[in-house]
Design a protein that fits this description.
The protein is of the alpha+beta class and 262 residues long. It has eleven helices and seven strands. Helix 5 crosses helix 6, helix 5 packs across helix 7 and helix 6 packs across helix 7.
Length: 262
């Protein structure tokens, strides 16, 4: 294969990735419109019969196109879950973040700064300084990360310190040494699980039980708060890769919707 051929193939892959993202954005937008209509009609947000039919058709069509049906189902489960998260967001189901958005209503730049603070666990101290743990983060660095400017960062900090609820949240954030992206390099197992209902009690207990019963130690478990995130996930890092048989058992747990392996 010539270098020119490799470049041409990669260029086409990049084009296909762009097309996939455009289609995904359209699907997410339609999911939001569906949510508003469901709310208006008094229907339940989630339609499990519809989901099963979508997955069944995807497996059949994927197999016809020469794709692994199991891979297609996993991919579609992630897409469906993302759409469900968008539906929840559109009808105000993500309670905490809806309150944050309301506090920054009309100030999209400040909201972007608040999102960046929350995403990275950066706190605002009582003197208005941005901290990562005990290390100070410059306003310029934060502005670049949030896609805004230092004046917007300053306005965000002022709004946070002037609002009791915002101050309580953003002065107490802490960073987390998240091991998902390095686990594989260290020879550990990395699973990302999308639950059927992240707000249901016992999800983590079921998963920990299924893994620990096989003598596998869990080094880290990070769960997204279902009230803060539109598509909550549970990431589990184990001291060694989890055998395929155990992963299949996890997929069959009542609380599990989809499993991604890193």
């Amino acid at each position: 294969m010539s270098e020119e051929t490799l470049v041409r193939i990669r260029k086409r892959i990049d084009e296909i990735d762009g097309e996939l993202l455009q289609l995904l954005a359209e699907r997410v937008k339609l999911a939001g419109e569906t949510a508003r209509l469901k709310k208006k009609l008094g229907k339940e947000l989630r339609d499990e019969r519809r989901e099963r039919e979508v997955l069944r058709r995807a497996r059949i069509e994927g197999g016809r196109l020469g794709l692994d049906p199991n891979f297609v189902e996993t991919f579609m489960r992630v897409v469906i879950s993302g759409g469900l998260g968008e539906e929840t967001k559109r009808i105000g189901g993500v309670r905490f973040w809806s309150q944050i958005e309301e506090a920054f209503k009309g100030y999209p730049g400040e909201l972007a700064v608040a999102r960046t603070l929350f995403l990275h666990g950066l706190r605002v101290d009582e003197r208005g300084r941005i901290k990562c743990g005990d290390m100070r983060i410059t306003s310029l660095s934060l502005a670049k990360a949030a896609g805004t400017d230092r004046r917007t960062v300053a306005a965000t900090v002022k709004r946070i310190l002037g609002d009791e609820k915002l101050r309580t949240v953003f002065t107490n954030l802490r960073p987390l040494p998240y091991l998902r992206d390095v686990g594989k390099e260290l020879g550990w197992g990395v699973l990302e699980i999308i639950p059927k209902d992240a707000s249901r009690p016992g999800v983590l207990k079921e998963l920990v039980g299924a893994i620990s019963s096989r003598g596998i130690n869990i080094r880290q478990a990070v769960a997204d708060d279902p009230h803060l995130t539109t598509q909550p996930k549970l990431t589990i890092i184990t001291d060694r890769p989890i055998p395929g048989k155990v992963i299949e058992e996890i997929r069959k747990l009542p609380s599990v919707y989809s499993v991604l392996i890193y």
